[in-house]
Write a structure and sequence with these properties.
Blueprint: E1 3-7, H1 13-23, E2 29-34, E3 38-40, H2 45-49, E4 59-61, H3 62-65, E5 72-75, E6 78-82, E7 87-90, E8 94-96, E9 99-102, E10 107-108, H4 129-144, E11 149-153, H5 161-176, E12 193-196, H6 213-223, E13 227-229, E14 234-238, E15 241-244, E16 249-251, E17 254-258, E18 261-262, H7 265-268, E19 294-296, H8 319-336, E20 345-347, E21 351-356, E22 361-367, E23 379-384, H9 386-405, H10 411-419, E24 425-427
Parallel strand pairs: 1-2, 1-9, 2-5, 9-19, 11-12, 11-17, 12-13
Antiparallel strand pairs: 3-4, 6-7, 7-8, 10-18, 14-15, 15-16, 20-24, 21-22, 22-23
């Protein structure tokens, strides 16, 4: 019998545990460890921050749903991991494992800039449930005494889509309250919004842009009279001001800036396990190149940008990519255990994203996420319209239903993706790419 431990129960961890349970016979144990008691559908947090969705609406109690699918659930924090001895240390016990799947998600690097973050700083964030609630509390106070707003991304950030969503949704909310009427410009009721991004240009998104994303994002912002400051580095924050590296100061009564990500401390403390920022390097199979017992999925994996930007930024790892990683990891672990036969597989790293902008939205399809060295992709498609917002709401409900039922990617999802030319995973077939497999007796 083998014990496979999944660390983290977010968009990568919970589906990984489910996929492992589906593919592995019951003689093998699947354990899920989470420092959070609930699963949260992270893409909906911009709505929570602005009071457009309650947090309870997008959460599930892990202790209620995980054990019923034959998975051991442990609500605890991982203090340390030892890939050499195959042990995970929790607060009050130590677990042995045969394989560990790291799916922790990111740690927010709130110490990257003075004044960054809602606790001990002057900015809001929508990167985790607790911060989204704090952002909503601050938003309600802001509405009682409105003023200038700054939304954006700090140097080193890698996930830009939620910042655009937040800015455009904030405009829509304020417009309904009569605080964004252009006829009232410069009056005491008008709330100016400034978008500050470390991207080389708006719509770069950490992936060198795609299709007409550069012009589309600019148009969305311009049509709503949101001032844009691209390729701009923030240096620090004060209670009602955002300081830029070039010395300029932007007044702000409400500031929502996405921070840089890094890997959790317990990973960074293991020599050779992560890069300098705590991200886990992986082979095409998503196994660690040094520690055979370690796999990783989601935001915590290392994905290097293909270009150097004037201001350092990271590469996003979106939901579909993470699901592709979970399929690959579960398959490859089952292969090593001798449960199945065939080739190892790898994720195709295609991305489909829905963004709600209030009265409209945008769907982005990047195949693959990162272009080749000449800047080309197989496909780069953007659709816009109010229907995108409806689809995002429907997908939220569908994904939460999947997590209740113990699904990863259903057969009809896989069929639909194949029908539009998105196979999700592919075999690692060449002799130079195949990795040595050491089956466990």
């Amino acid at each position: 019998m083998a014990r496979v431990v999944v660390i983290g129960a977010g968009l990568g961890g919970l589906p990984s545990a489910y996929e492992l349970r589906h593919i592995l016979p019951r003689e093998h144990q699947v354990t899920l460890i989470s420092n959070q008691p609930k699963f949260t559908f992270i893409p909906s947090l911009p709505w929570v921050g602005l009071g457009l969705r309650s947090l309870d609406h997008i959460q599930l109690e892990l202790a209620n749903i995980v054990p019923q699918h034959g998975i051991e659930f442990i609500h605890d924090s991982v203090i340390a991991i030892d890939p050499t001895s195959h042990q995970i240390r929790l607060k009050d016990r130590t677990l042995d494992y045969d394989y560990a799947v790291i799916a922790t998600g990111p740690e927010l690097a709130l110490d990257a800039l003075p004044g960054l973050g809602p606790e001990g700083g002057y900015t809001q964030s929508i990167c985790n449930p607790h911060h989204a609630l704090l952002a909503h509390e601050a938003w309600e106070k802001f509405l009682q005494q409105p003023g200038p707003i700054v939304v954006g991304a700090a140097p080193g950030a890698s996930c830009f889509g939620p910042a655009y969503e937040f800015a455009l949704l904030a405009h829509q909310v304020l417009k309904r309250k009569g605080l964004r009427d252009s006829s009232k410009y410069r009056s005491h009721n008008y709330v100016p919004i400034t978008f500050v991004t470390s991207e080389p240009y708006a719509g770069h998104l950490g992936i060198s842009g795609m299709g007409n994303s550069r012009w589309l994002i600019r148009k969305f912002l311009a049509d709503r009279e949101i001032d844009l400051m691209e390729n701009t580095a923030i240096s620090q924050f004060e209670p009602e001001a955002v300081h830029l590296v070039d010395g300029r100061i932007i007044p702000s009564r409400y500031t929502m800036v996405l921070p840089p990500f890094r890997g959790p401390r317990f990973l960074r403390e293991v020599p050779g396990l992560t890069d300098a920022k705590g991200f886990v390097p992986v082979l095409p199979s998503y196994r660690h190149p040094k520690f055979d017992s370690i796999y990783a999925v989601g935001v915590v994996t290392q994905l290097k940008p293909i270009e150097q930007t004037p201001i350092p930024i990271g590469v996003p790892k979106v939901g579909l990519m993470t699901e592709e990683m979970t399929l690959s990891v579960a398959h490859n672990i089952a292969l090593e255990l001798g449960v199945i036969s065939g080739y190892q597989i790898k994720p195709t790293l295609q991305a489909v994203c829905f963004a709600d902008f209030g009265n409209t939205g945008a769907l982005f399809l990047a195949d693959p996420l990162l272009p080749d060295t000449e800047g080309n992709r197989h496909r780069a498609i953007i659709y816009k319209g109010a229907w995108v917002s409806w689809i995002k709401s429907a997908f939220e409900k569908y994904f939460l239903t999947k997590m209740r039922l113990g699904w990863t990617i259903s057969w009809f999802e896989r069929w639909a993706f194949r029908a539009i030319g998105l196979p999700l995973v592919e075999p690692i077939q060449t002799d130079t790419s195949l990795e040595v497999i050491h089956p466990i007796p």
